[in-house]
Amino acid sequence: MSKKNKNKNKGPSAEKSEEAMIGGLIEGSPEAVGVAVLRLACGCRKMAAVDKTGEPASKVVIYRDNALNVCQQCQEDNGAFVRVQESFIHWINPAPAAEEQQKIRDKVFGTVTTH
């Protein structure tokens, strides 16, 4: 079996344009088990490495592909959570067990109950 990261989870995965930023966060964060990625409606992205307890393992980085700066809206509100369209964690191999992944996701992104 190949050692490449095979994303078996359904849902979003890293796009080509995000891979270099993810790699940089991982390289600078030896305790990281993954990188949380938030894709905003404006096209900007926020990312941060996370450790095995769901705590930040790096600073939060916000960027926009092919742009010198993030958009005006993100400059004003720092990429408000209400504008997030997609969120996921890009796991580093070996990824934590599924149960641990869920605990980390819940801590990073929160949980929502519906009635």
From TrEMBL:
Region annotated Disordered, chain positions: 1-22
Protein name: Uncharacterized protein
